[in-house]
Design a protein that fits this description.
alpha/beta, 11 strands, about 230 residues, globular, about 15% strand, 5-stranded parallel β-sheet
């Protein structure tokens, strides 16, 4: 079995579970930190020819992170492509199980059981808070409806102000974000790298939580620790 992954979180899941099968990954696949496979470009602009030269039996992708024209080109070249759809934590756990089985895992990995156990617990008793969750600036872009990260926050007692917006990642001008008067602004360090000096200054008087973007947006082995670590940060 030869697998190419076009999704950083799926790359990590495959690499720590069935490492021998992974032969290629994107430039953004940063975990495991010692990952040593052929790099084939970005998630939005993979080098399709480079993928094909690796002669994969399977390419794993995601309907949000990867572009349909690239996936179609791979299929037309005769490559099997498994496309995941992840909008919430339960869906992530199901899709991870599906991907790992397709990649030849003979048993369910311990980290996936631990992740399922961690997220099966009910939310800790606390008053719920509202949050704006930017994922980009210039222009300001925030979490909208039906996002994995939004579901993660909701399970931690934090309700996304734009959870019912018509778009999944709406562009909202900064004055509108501040006028929404959230209890909290959640600033992940990816895809845009918000830092203490880049982001919080735009929301004077509003508490800002700088969070590890991998814990908030990746569905993979990090899910086993994400709940406890995000709860502590938030």
């Amino acid at each position: 079995m030869r697998v190419v992954s076009l999704v950083p979180s799926l790359t990590e899941a495959v690499a720590v579970t069935v490492p021998a099968v992974l032969v290629g990954a994107t430039d953004w696949c940063s975990h495991p930190v010692d990952l040593d496979v052929v790099r084939i470009g970005g998630t939005k602009n993979p080098d399709v020819d480079a993928v094909l030269r690796l002669a994969p039996d399977l390419v794993v992708a995601n309907e949000e992170e990867n572009r349909e024209p690239d996936l179609t080109a791979l299929r037309q070249a005769g490559t099997e492509v498994l496309v995941t759809e992840v909008r919430d934590v339960p869906g992530a756990l199901r899709e991870l199980d599906r991907v790992l089985r397709a990649c030849g895992a003979r048993s369910r990995p311990r980290w996936l059981d631990e992740a399922e156990d961690a997220w099966a617990e009910p939310p800790a008793p606390r008053p719920r808070r509202t949050a704006v969750v930017p994922v980009w600036r210039r222009p300001w872009t925030v979490l909208g409806r039906d996002t994995f990260a939004g579901d993660v926050l909701a399970r931690l007692g934090v309700d996304n102000v734009y959870a019912h917006h018509g778009d999944r990642y709406p562009r909202i001008p900064l004055p509108e974000l501040t006028a929404a008067a959230p209890d909290l602004v959640v600033l992940p360090d990816e895809p845009y790298r918000f830092t203490p000096d880049d982001g919080p200054e735009c929301f004077p008087g509003v508490p800002c939580a700088l969070v590890d973007g991998r814990l908030l947006t990746w569905y993979g082995p990090s899910l086993a620790q994400a709940r406890a670590r995000l709860a502590e940060t938030l």
